[in-house]
Specification:
It is a single chain. This protein is globular. The chain has a four-stranded parallel β-sheet, sandwiched between helices. It has a single domain, classed as 3-Layer(aba) Sandwich (Rossmann fold). By secondary structure, it is of the alpha/beta class. The chain contains twelve helices and four strands, in the order αβααβαβαααβααααα. α2 crosses α10.
């Protein structure tokens, strides 16, 4: 746990003691967490009277901070009243140990089929220089299967959790976003959700990122079942076999 996370945990616990409403968005890396934060931030800004666009007038990190990289403070409530939305990639056991009365908090658990998630995580690490580009993608995915399993297994026994799949977010975005907005008590309408989805299309996000950095690092295709283009058939079969139990449990709990 780095220093930013430690400081944020102290701040979050203080907010909880003052009866602030804390909701965590938890996922394994590269499962659509950043995209969902952008969509929810767009809805929140529209509710605050903003005419939103792809480049939000208020950065999503201020509205929906990342516990790993953003300093959390009172400014994060400027657009959400008593609600604090927090992105994490932390396992439940870590949050349970660190967060005061964690059992009483709400959690959105976002999952993505493991082969797509692991492939995307591989490309992310290569682009940011976190692993060598010569590192075999099949080996990487197989080595990380159990980390994916462990992450989601820790959340399956919590009744208050809201389970969302990336696949439903892509295939049924209107219904899925409406379901999330209801869970976190954000006003919404089909028009508001449609505007957010249009603003945050992957094509527009990639174009914005390219213009800003001249290096399209973060957003890739955003499509479903693309791992077949990168992995050997044997690797995909191995991933499916070793994650089948957790995947089936996640499908049963998906509340959209």
């Amino acid at each position: 746990m780095n220093n930013i996370v430690r400081k944020n945990v102290i701040q979050i616990n203080n907010f909880i003691k003052y009866n602030k409403n804390i909701i965590f968005l938890n996922s394994y890396p590269r499962s659509g967490n950043t995209w969902l934060r952008l969509l929810i931030s767009d809805l929140i800004l529209q509710n605050n009277g903003y005419c939103t666009q792809t480049k939000l007038q208020v950065h999503q990190d201020l509205i929906f901070p990342d516990i790993h990289s953003n300093i959390i403070d009172g400014k994060n409530f400027n657009f959400t009243g008593d609600l604090l939305l927090i992105k994490t990639h932390l396992e439940k056991i870590s949050l349970n140990e660190q967060i005061y009365n964690y059992k009483d908090t709400k959690n959105i658990i976002l999952s993505r089929n493991p082969q797509d998630s692991l492939v995307s995580f591989y490309h992310f690490k290569v682009k940011y220089g976190l692993i060598d580009s010569k590192y075999d993608i099949n080996r990487f995915c197989i080595e990380n299967i159990e980390l994916w399993n462990k992450f989601y297994e820790t959340y399956l026994d919590q009744d208050k959790n809201k389970f969302i799949s990336y696949e439903n977010l892509v295939k049924r975005p209107m219904k899925t976003i409406a379901s999330i907005a209801d869970y976190i008590n954000i006003n919404h309408s089909p028009e508001i959700i449609e505007k957010a989805l249009n603003n945050m299309s992957f094509k527009k996000l990639r174009n914005l990122e390219f213009q800003k950095t001249n290096d399209n690092k973060f957003f890739r295709k955003g499509q479903v079942n693309t791992a077949f283009n990168d992995l050997e058939d044997e690797t995909i079969c191995t991933i499916r076999f070793k994650t089948q139990k957790i995947q089936n449990a996640l499908i049963k709990t998906d509340s959209t």
